[in-house]
Structure formats: structure tokens, C-alpha cells
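Example 4.3 (complexes with small molecules)
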Amino acid sequence: ETRYDFRALEERWLPVWRETQPFRSGAEGDERPTKYVLDMFPYPSGDLHMGHAEAYALGDVIARYWAQRGFNVLHPIGWDSFGLPAENAAITRGLDPRGWTEDNIAQQRSSMERYACSFDWDRVLATHRPDYYRWNQWLFTRLHERGLAYRKHSNVNWCPKDQTVLANEQVVGGLCERCDTPVTKKKLNQWYFKVTDFADRLLDDLDGLQDTWPSKVIAMQRNWIGRSQGADVTFVIEGRDQPVDIYTTRPDTLYGATFMVVAADSDLAAELASTADAAVQAEFEAYAERVKTESDIDRLSTERDKTGVFLGRYAVNPVNGERLPIWASDYVLADYGHGAIMAVPAHDQRDLDFARAMDLPVRAVLDCRDEHGDRLPEPAESGIATTGDGTLINSGDLDGLDKTAAIAAIVARLEADGVGRASTNYRLRDWLISRQRYWGTPIPIVHCDACGEVRVPDDQLPVELPAAEGLDLKPKGQSPLAAATDWVTTTCPSCGGTATRDTDTMDTFVDSSWYFLRYLSPGKTDGPFDPADAKRWAPVDQYVGGVTHAILHLLYARFFTKALHDMGMIDFEEPFSALLNQGMVQMDGSAMSKSRGNLVRLSEQLDEFGVDAIRLTMAFAGPPEDDIDWADVSPAGSAKFLARAWRLARDVASAPDSDPAAGDAALRAVTHRTVADCAGLVEGFRFNVVVARVMELVNATRKVIDSGAGPADPAVREAAEAVAIVLSLFSPYCAEDMWSMLGHENVAHAGWPAVDESLLVEETVTCVVQVKGKVRDRLEVPPGIGEDELREAALGSAAVQRALDGAAIRTVIVRAPKLVNIVPA
Ligand code: ANZ
Ligand code: ZN
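Answer. The structure with ANZ bound is encoded below.
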């Protein structure tokens, strides 16, 4: 052929790769060092879109690079195929979610193959298949045995549109993550995983990821876990036998407490209100009803007008015996700390807003100053709480202590008196995993009147989903599985009596919390994965995926990893040693993602410009973390460049293969410098710079050909081979074809070109060193040498020292890089 034709290349090489499977990971006995490169697996909710194309292009650069470096690379793919997108699509189209899901998987897989993803096709998994979700159930069982899976009644987030509960993580700004409907609360008996047992480890182990995870993701995880250090303080409630604990981060402000607030939706508030007069009771009940529909985000907002009901009861401050009126309000949450606070309006803004709204006293107990040492205005007058450091006032014998000393002193005193103790709180909540939907993993529990909650024995797993046929999948607040009577009715594994199956299914984040381990032992039938395989491959060396998963998925996978570690199944505690978040592909500023629909169709782009050009465009668009605006990039330009690169190999193809040492020295220097630099650039994820450098190399090579040396110059062949190998990370069809024209096979495993260090030595210039105007030495120095460095080098010369013969120096004149003149005294 004489013309670059991307369609012909795709038709030529795709069948070859299908046959040879170049990315099958090394078998047992393969001695090469391992590298586990993992792309987040997709939802099969349609064909691949531009967002996938970006993610898989970037993940592929990394996987293919390590293969070229001689690593035994594991780069698997699968499908996150349970969940609402599939189920809702199935309901609207009146199809069976199973068939619909499998069809989409087949389509996505064939698109991935065409897109030349370097996946190991022997390890594919799909979470909706019983051979996968069986192990979700098995893992649930292990967690249940350890008390890490449990059921409790609680007020849960409820999406009225999807008719299902949502995890806290799935409520974004008070709205359902999936359908943007305002989320309400509902009291239900639900399954949880005890993530909170791991709060400290989940937080502290982030330290080890500091250098290899995006700092933004680490900050989001920290914030989500939300560890806060403070104290519990016990308040006696007048007319109640039991005292009440409150949680505070500011025990130093205890003398400034002027009232107490309990969460309006707490049991305590209801109990305290029950002794009030009828009018207060009615007011309280109406208020509590309203609060139930409010989101936590609104409740904690400092912007909102404060509302509440005085319950007619009093608490007693343990340090000074003062009586504090007790109010019910929404700005205190029922499920954080103890659901009750001591309010210190002078030093907490929400308390101050409340005090001013309800006309309650404000007493400053810290003398807070600005940067000039001037006292800040009284909060009672300014309306601004002083929340910073200061010196204690109005606090009895603690006056004069600074904040830190005061916290220590008060906590010690409370502990000694038995009315308080140091305490730690977390924003993190246990993970609510039950869903009232069909398309998920059935919870492997049987409910028996005689035995209670009974785990389904391992040898009866999987508990398979009943057929969808005949079931009404429409959301209705109760799992569609409840209507599958034959399925629900079973025998109790413990007593053999009649019992019923649990009808909830698991949150699909359970599926994705450990899938990276299942890839290691595909087809294993007596366990989720083989610990020996985990030892060989895991943890994941490089994880690649969207920042949308910065909290939920990563946190849950980290939790599972720690739990599995504690069960002795793996010997590491963090699943993903390094993380790369790629940006999103945008079109006129709107994100291309599963929920927003696709404005640019990937398949059309591939048909028009070819796989290679689209992949190259994704890498060349900018740093991988940045969003790509599709209007700003040029796939046509990429295609043009690929044609230029391809023609190098075409032109060299007929030239004889001879020793590159005889070739053009300048071109050889560019080739070896490019290869040497690109390694570091790939490892630093600077893919766009790598592409730019290959473009330069292609230009330099063409120049040598055109200069008369022609393609026969052995440096040209050397350059063309380097171009093919580096390009194989980005544009595999073009690279494979170049490699083949150059007389080789299988560019993916060509091996990264060896760099001749002697060709990397930079050019030097000769610097003349004079003493009193007389030449005494000549130094070879880099052209960019600095004045100070050159002065040092000149003075250090043995010949110069001899000429000076111990004389003191008056001046040194430096004209970098060519001349130094030394004038002795
Ligand atoms: C008295 C106080 C004085 C407070 C002061 C702050 C400043 P973090 O850091 O988020 O843990 N609080 C405690 N439980 C609460 C609940 N269930 N709902 C809403 N607010 C609650 O915040 C802890 C602080 O938030 C606690 O410290 C408490 O107010 C409030 F100058 O106690 B503080
Ligand atoms: Zn039983």
C-alpha cells in the first residue's frame, strides 16, 4: 500500500489480535514482575460513549507502556451490570433486564475490541451473573458472621420517584443522585454494613496514599469520614431520672452555654415534649412533622432562619449549676453525636442565630482578638460569633487559660467528677445496603418464626434471582421479589420449618467493592478469589477512573479490603496503590456521561476519523485530569499526523537494515532523547507531552529523509521503529502496521527501545580560562552553564591554580559560556 487508510488498518489488524490475544496476562510460572492496571468497569446501559473512550484510551497508555517495559501486565475488564439504569431501561422498554443487559454487554465488548483496548479477555466478569453475585452473598455471610452486616430500623433517605432507599452518599444536595428528585425520609428496617468500625483505619491509611492519589480525592475521603475530637458532657435534666449526654468540640466554652437544643426528630425531644402543656405539645408535633421532610444539608445550613420549640424543661450545667432552657430545633441532627447540644451562642454562629431569633442570653467566655490585638466586637451586638482562639473569661477559676489549655483542664475536671469524658465523633455512617429493587443481588438471609434471621448456608449459594417474567418491576416501595411467592417461601436452614426469604437486594456498590479481586481468579468455584492469586497480583498498582467515584466507590472498596484483610484472605489493607482520575469529555461545556445523554456519538467519530485518531486525540487534548471540550480538539489533525508517521515506515520498508551507528548523528540524538524522556513522561501521566514529542521526532526524521540522505540512512530506520513503539501506546493499528512494514511482528511486545546513554550527552562548548590575560586552560562546559558554576569550575582548574601560585584574587570576569579571566591582586 502507498496511502494511509485507517479503515484498511482496522480491518487488517483487528482479526489478528482477536486471534493472538496479545494482552492475555502471563500464566503461572511467568517470571516477569507483575503490574496490575485497572480501569473502572462500565455500566452496560448502552453502547460505549465518549467518556468511556477517553477513560479507556488513557488506561491503555499505562497498561501498554508497562507491557513494553517487560512487565507481566494484568489489565482486565468487566461489567457493573446490576442496578437502576438497567432496571429502569428495562421497565420503560418492557424488556427482561437480563437479556437487555447481556445484549449491551455484547455490544460494548465488541466496541472495546474495535477500540483496541488492551484487555485480557479471559478474565471478563459481569456482576449480574450468578457466578459473580454468588460471592457477594458469600461475602455478606462472612460479614454477617462477624457482626459487620446487621439490620436495624431507622429513618432512611427515600427517593419518592425511584421508590427506593438511598445511601447518604447517593443524596447530592438533598436530591437523588440518579433522578434529581428531592429526597425524603422513611422509617424502615434495613441492612447495613458496619463501615464505622473501620473509621479510624479508613482515615489514617489515607496518609500512605498521599503521593499516589489525587489530593482532592484524599481530602474528600477525609471530609466524608469527618473525624472530630471533643468531649461528651453529662447534663442532668430536671424531672428526668436519666441525665443526657451532649457532644461538643468546644468544652472550653462550657461556661458560655445558655440553653440546650435537642434534635426535633429525636426520641428525646418527643419524650420531653410529652410532659409539656397541650399547646406546646401540638406545636411540637407539627414542627417535628415538618422537620422530617428536610434534608440534612438544609438543616445544617448557616443561611437559614432558625426555627424551634421551647419544651418547657431545663437542663443543669455541670460546671456551675445554671439552669438551661431546653429547645427542640432542626439545626441539631438526631443521628450525630447524641442528638443534643449545649448551645454557646457567643462562640457558635448557628447557636447565636438561634439565640437572637428566640431572644435567649448570649455570654462570651473567650476574649478573642484581631490581628492588631484589639478585642473583637461582642457577638450579642455584632451578630457574629467569635469562633477563633482566645483567653477564657467569665469561666470561674479557669479565667486566663488559653483555648487548648482550657479544653484539657475542663475535660480533666469533667472526668474526675464523672460528668464527662474526651470523645471522638465521625460524620461517617454505616453503609445502608438494602434496596427494594429487583435487579440486584438477593440478600442471603431467611426469616424464620422460630429461629429469627438465619444465614443461607454456603453450599446453598447462590440464592438466584427469580425470573423477571411475571413480576411487576415497577418501583412501589416494596421489593418486587416479595411478589415471587414460590421464591420467597422456603425452608429454614436451621430448623427445617417453613420460612421466608429476605426480599431486599444489595446496593450495587457491594458488587464493585471487590471486583478487582475476582478478576484474579476467574471461574473459581470454591471461593470469591484465590489468596495465592491475590498475593501474586494485588493490590492494584494503578487504578484509572472518573472523579465521580471519589467518595462512595473508593471508600467502600477500601472498607471491603480492610475487612478481607482481617479475615486473613489478603495481606494488604489498601486496594489501589495509585489512582488517576481522568477528566470528562464535554461538548460546549456539558458533561458526556451516562445520565446526560450523548451529544457526540463515539461510533460516528470512530467511523469518520478512525480508532487511532480518536485515541490519540484523547491523549493529546491536555493533562489527563482536565476536562476535554470536544469542540476544541482536532481528530482530523490527529489523523493527519498518524498518516505522516505511517509514511516514515512505508518509506523505510524497502531500505536495507544496517547498523544505526553509521546513521545521522543529530537524528540519533533526537530519537534517543525522545525515548528516554517519554518513559518518565508516561510514568508522570504527561501523555499529551509524549504525543508532542513523538510528533517532533516524526518531523525530525522526515527532515533527514528529505535532506537527501533518504530513507536508507540507518538513523531513519531507528527513528521509525521508535515512533512505532511509542505510538503503540496511543494508536495501536497504525503502530502495528508500521512495525510490520519495518519487518517485525507484534508491536505491543516489541519492548521499550534501549537508550544509548552516550547519545544523551548534551553538546558542550569550549570555555577559555585566562589568568592575567594569558590562556591557562580550556574547559568543556554545557552551553547553558550559569556564571557562578563557571567561575567555580575555572578556579578549580589545576592549571589555573598553578598559574596563580597562591596569589590572592582581585577580580574574576565571567562571560558565560565562553570566557573566564582571572586577575590576581
Ligand atoms: C458547643 C460549641 C461551642 C460547639 C462552640 C461549637 C462551637 P463537628 O466538628 O462537626 O463534630 N453539634 C454536636 N452535635 C450536633 C448535632 N447532632 N447536630 C448539630 N450540631 C451538633 O461539630 C461538633 C459541634 O457541632 C459541637 O460542638 C456542637 O456544637 C455541634 F463555640 O458544642 B459545639
Ligand atoms: Zn428455623
